[in-house]
Design goal:
By secondary structure, the chain is of the alpha/beta class. It has 13 helices and 9 strands. It has 4 domains: about 80 residues, no CATH class; about 80 residues, no CATH class; about 40 residues, no CATH class; about 140 residues, Rossmann fold. A 5-stranded mixed β-sheet has the order 6-5-7-8-9, with helices on both faces. Helix 5 packs antiparallel against helix 6 and helix 11 packs parallel to helix 12. It starts with 11 loop residues before the first helix and ends with a helix.
């Protein structure tokens, strides 16, 4: 700026306008007052006095910062400038900062900018300038974007569909950044967000037994819980390990088969089936073992059972009550059931026990003469029981 050293050469009115214009509109020119310049005097007009600090402050806008100090220096604060610590040197010797990443809006096509600007101009005529800054649900922007995308795919020329697509995408970018900055209502983003960006963890529900998690809203009643609260994750990591659960009880199987009319009441077959089942980890209820516990030993007293039946009318009832109670106490939810010995079709008692077990929904296994267990289909068993055995 050229400083006028001899204001007396100019018309007083012109000097007055220039002088006050510099003081009002260019704060840096405040230094002129402090440089000891000659007081502008016009041979016709009044003597121009040096403007005081108070007058300058009163003439400035209330939001304009006064930088004059009255000493010929300024008190302007230095501007903030980021520094990545990296430098790029040009062939001329000039140096600039080179950060790891800097946006390059200069690479955006000017044609695209002009066409989007033209589309925004038409929108401003229709809705008013900057209408979108009030906030439009993102779902509405996506719906509009899709409609124009289809128009572009169809080759329609009734509107600038490409510019409309770009404009809607720009709206979405604007809303996302404003929401991120806290200047826009987050409800504007009304999309379902199926793919959440939040890191989540799957943790066993029993890991929370030692934690007061009433304050964590994410905790649900399930075997596996999905959480993202870091404090909850930390609490789970620091919680003591739970006591190991006891192994569930193995299924229990009742052995059903013929006894009457067979040597030693077929106890050896019951014993062999019980031994084989226990070797496979099953619990076993054997009528032969129950009879021995009641004092019946067909080896020592081959006719003891027949004699007891002949002398005690309640003997058979007690045996039936004992065996049926054992079957009724089995639990189909635990996989309990019956093991069927060969010859069960010829045993009245075994068929009655099988019918009761079918009624209770229990499982069945067969025991082959070769000495191994196999699953017995209930449908086949039902057919054999009620048809081949002469049942109803």
């Amino acid at each position: 700026m050229r400083i006028i050293r001899d204001p007396l050469k100019f018309d007083g009115c012109v000097i007055n306008v220039i002088w006050h214009s510099m003081l009002r509109n260019a704060p840096r020119n405040r230094q002129i007052v402090d440089m000891g310049l000659p007081t502008p005097v016009d041979s016709v007009g009044p003597v121009m006095k040096k403007t005081s600090d108070d007058e300058i402050r009163n003439s400035q806008n209330a939001n304009e910062k006064i930088v004059g100090t009255g000493t010929g220096e300024t008190s302007m604060e230095p501007p903030k400038m980021k520094d990545s610590g990296q430098r790029r040197t040009f062939s001329t010797g000039a140096v600039r900062d080179r950060g790891e990443f800097k946006p390059r809006p200069d690479l955006i096509s000017p044609h695209a900018n002009l066409r989007e600007g033209a589309w925004l101009a038409k929108g401003a005529e229709k809705y008013g300038a900057r209408n979108y800054e009030k906030g439009i649900p993102i779902s509405e922007c996506i719906a509009s974007l899709y409609r124009h995308l289809i128009g572009l795919q169809l080759g329609l020329t009734d509107e600038d569909h490409a510019a409309a697509i770009r404009t809607n995408a720009g709206f979405i970018l604007h809303f996302e950044e404003e929401i991120k900055a806290g200047r826009m209502d987050p409800s504007i983003d009304d999309m379902p967000h199926y793919a959440k960006l939040t890191t989540r963890y799957l943790i066993p529900a029993d890991s929370l037994y030692a934690i007061d998690y009433s304050a964590f809203s994410e905790v649900q009643s399930s075997d596996v819980i999905s959480v993202s609260d870091p404090s909850l994750i930390k609490a789970v990591e620091e919680a003591p390990d739970p006591e190991p659960d006891a192994e569930p009880d193995p299924p229990t199987f009742y052995i059903a088969g013929p006894m009457r009319g067979l040597p030693l009441y077929n106890f050896p077959a019951f014993d062999e089936a019980a031994r084989h089942a226990r070797s496979q980890g099953l619990n076993v209820i054997s009528p032969a073992e129950a009879d021995r516990a009641a004092g019946i030993d067909p080896v020592a007293d081959p006719i003891g059972v027949s004699a007891a039946e002949a002398t005690d009318p309640e003997f058979v009832k007690n045996i039936v009550r004992r065996d049926c109670t054992a079957i009724i106490n089995l639990d189909k939810e635990q996989g309990d059931g019956l093991i069927l010995l060969p010859g069960w079709r010829q045993s009245t008692g075994a068929r009655a026990e099988i019918a009761l077990a079918i009624w209770l929904g229990l499982d069945f296994k067969g025991f082959s003469p070769n000495g191994y267990l196999f699953n017995y289909p209930v449908t086949e068993l039902r057919f054999n029981l009620f048809h081949q055995c002469g049942g109803a």
